[in-house]
Amino acid sequence: MSRKRVWDDAAKLTRPASTVRCVDVGETVVVVLEPFTPPANDAFVPGELAALAFTVPVAYPDAQPDATGFFVRPAGLKLADGRTSPASTSDASLPGIGNGWLKFSWAPKGAQWDPAIDTLETYLANIEARFLRRN
Amino acid sequence: MATTVKEQRGGEHGGHDGDAVGQGVFHVNDREGRVDAHGEDLAGSEILRRVELTSDRYELFTVNGGHADKRVEPDEVVRVKPGDHFRATLRGTDYSSPAGVGRS
């Protein structure tokens, strides 16, 4: 239940070609993976994201990572047709990090975050599952 | 990869001489489960159970090239070998929700 726990767990996130960095922003830590190749990346243009980011409260793991969604760059990410923005997204700024992000919004329903079990790996897996929807 | 495999040599089926003999490790997220060194055919629910997760709370995905790939249904049987990785997501996330849409 500390900033260090966020940093430690973030360091364990391994995805091909991605490096992970953490930025302390107030009572949160922003975890950034750069670059990030999403699953089903043929459904998106570009197929490789410059960055993927999400916010984690310092009360993690008792408190879950941002339950409203996550952020990607470039903000101009499109579906494979090159014109349509992905569903449930909007231009956004990421406090403490800057402008020029696209936010994917979601809402957790059903199974609730369990601090005894769930980790940043669980959260990142949910992000990957979002991209598998290809929309 | 924290894969450990202790092959039992000379036995036709193995796995009777010790707790870890003939077994290896697979992962679901950052959780470790054990499986026969030669691989086992397991239902999705059993894969989750071996890492102390349940299919009523989690959805299971195969991993291909380091990324989540295909969903494994609870009753769907797949071959699991030591070194394999899977992802488990919290069941019930509404990815189409407009909640939170807007500037942060």
How much is the average pLDDT of chain B? 80
Major β-sheet of chain B, in short?
A: 5 strands, mixed
Order of helices and strands of chain A: HEEEEEEEEEH
Helix content of chain B: under 10%
Spatial ordering of strands, largest sheet of chain A: 1-2-4-5-8-7
Classify the helix fraction of chain A into a percent range: 10-25%
3D structure, described in words:
With 135 residues, chain A is α+β, with helices and mostly antiparallel strands. Chain A has one domain (3-132). Helices cover 16% and strands 34% of the residues of chain A. Chain A has two helices and nine strands; from the N terminus they run αβββββββββα. Chain A has helices at residues 3-11, 120-132; strands at 19-25, 28-34, 44-45, 51-57, 69-73, 78-79, 89-94, 98-105, 107-108. By secondary structure, chain B is mainly β. Chain B is 6% helix and 39% strand. In chain B, strand 1 (23-28) and strand 2 (31-36) form a beta hairpin. The N and C termini of chain B lie far apart (37 Å). Classes of the chains: A alpha+beta (135), B mainly beta (104). The interface between A and B is large, with 43 and 33 residues. Strand 9 of chain A pairs antiparallel with strand 8 (93-94) of chain B.
Short description:
The complex is a heterodimer of chains A (135) and B (104). Chain A is of the alpha+beta class and 135 residues long.
Which tags fit this structure?
heterodimer; A: 135 residues; alpha+beta; 6-stranded antiparallel sheet; two-stranded antiparallel ribbon; 2 helices; 34% strand; B: 104 residues; mainly beta; 5-stranded mixed sheet; two-stranded antiparallel sheet; 1 helix; 8 strands; 6% helix; disordered C terminus
